[in-house]
Amino acid sequence: MSEQRGAGTDHGDQGGDVLAAWEALVATARRTVADGLVVGTSGNVSVRVGDTVLVTPSGVPYDRLTPDDVTGVDLDGRQVLGTLVPTSELPLHLAVYEATDARAVVHTHAVHATAVSTLVDELPLVHYMAAALGGPVRVAPYATYGSAELAANALRALDGRSGCLLRNHGTLTHGADLDQAYDRTAQLEWMCRVWLTASSVPHLTPTLLTPAQLAEVTEKLRGYGQRG
Predict the structure, then answer these.
(1) How distant, in Å, are the alpha carbons of 11, 104, 147, 213 from that of 19?
(2) pLDDT tens-digit profile of 22-65?
């Protein structure tokens, strides 16, 4: 059994960073509930601090989490912070960190995104914000939650993307920080809602963007936002 350490103990030179990151993680997890992206303790959030991955613990309501509940593992999944059991989707999070330069991961059971995951193999290009996720959003084949198979399926769907849908399950997005990962989740859920709404109109078919149109937006987004 690996050594477990509490949040108040020394963890190299990263003690303050870990506590700040944990506070931000808890705030993001609570936001997923407030914004209706998860119900109860479904879904999970993680953030990487150096070689430590902080994760939401399994089965604990987010409004009950305190600074003393910090839960962290190393990149091999060995628990190094806290005593609460990490999320059951830990293999999914660790796979993303191993395969990408992500610093944060958000997984939800958002209603519209989950519905879309049961209907198509790829979210139709109903809006140009697909470019912000790297291109058309793929649907990873179904696998049991918490399994290595699910993690492998998700990585294939994420190839060249920062977000994907998980068949009959939900969403998975990553980013350079928690805010970016969360924003990508929110955008993905919104696009799924737009497509479901448009495609439900009788006798009409939604107009979709072409690959060339999406490529143009992708290039334009490179200069989006404030400089510096």
Answers:
(1) 11, 15, 29, 43
(2) 999 999 999 999 999 999 889 999 999 999 999 999 999 999 99
Return the percent helix, strand and coil in the chain, to nearest 5.
40, 20, 40
Which residue is it, tokens 């303790």? 41
pTM for the predicted model, two decimal places: 0.91
Judged against a pLDDT cut of 90, whether residue 12 lies above it is answered with: no
Q: How many alpha carbons fall within 13 Å on the CB side of residue 110?
A: 29
pLDDT in tens, 67-91: 999 999 999 999 999 999 999 999 9
Active site residues: 89
* Residue 119: per-residue pLDDT: 98
Question: Which segments of the chain does DSSP mark as H helices, in order?
Answer: 15-34, 90-99, 111-117, 148-158, 178-199, 211-221
pLDDT of residue 228: 56
Q: Is 205 left (phi over 0), alpha (psi -120 to 50) or beta?
A: beta
Please choose, from the candidates 75, 88, 60, 69, the residue with its C-alpha nearest in 3D space to the C-alpha of residue 2.
Answer: 75
Burial of 86 (0-12, 13-18, 19+ CB in 10 A): buried
Residue 15: per-residue pLDDT: 79
The label of the residue with tokens 């059951």 reads 88
| Residue 149, number of CB atoms within 10 A of its CB | 13
